[in-house]
Amino acid sequence: MKEKQRIVIAEDHTILREGLRALLTSDPDFDVVGEAEDGRDAVRCVENHMPDLVLMDLSLPRMNGMDAIREIKKRCPETKVLALTVHRTEEYILATLRAGADGYVLKDATRAELLIAIKSVLMGKPYLSPGVSDKVIEGYLEGRKTLRSTTPWDTLTQREREILKLIAEGYKNKEIADYLYISVKTVEKHRSNLMKKLDLHNTSALTAFAMEKGLVTK
Question: Which terminus of the chain, N or C, has fewer Cβ atoms within 10 Å?
């Protein structure tokens, strides 16, 4: 008997997560072995279950999907990651692939396309939704050197992006310090660095920037 492919679903919206689980468990080739509601849980879940593939939403609370992908690839390099997202911009697509994603599927994909994407990635073949492929190809044809461009966003460290996300989600310095096991002084330093690097001068501006980058949903 053929061994089922083990899958973890990382999605913070319960109804979407349940729908994905129902879809995947109806396929005899798949076994959903774990679920996660935020990026940190996704990393832990993958370490605990060592699945063949993670279906990863990118707009996750606490740790965003891109950072979670980096951690998963660092800790469990054999696990494939398929990003499932609403984001269509070339910048977002390329950043996700740089983070280590093996495929990129839009949330308006059909059931058939999602299954094709999952099976392709599991076979070691990268998969991009058709609309996504067009955007990436267009970027290269127009001579845009997106992979080598440096913006203020590109200068942020992973910890700075993590703190930016938590700030945008409404956490106070003390709460962020407790959550990340660092001092309040360290959080304040990171916040100051964020404002300098991004040339933003208050929490509202940082929050708006985080939303623009898809770290939090509007």
Answer: N
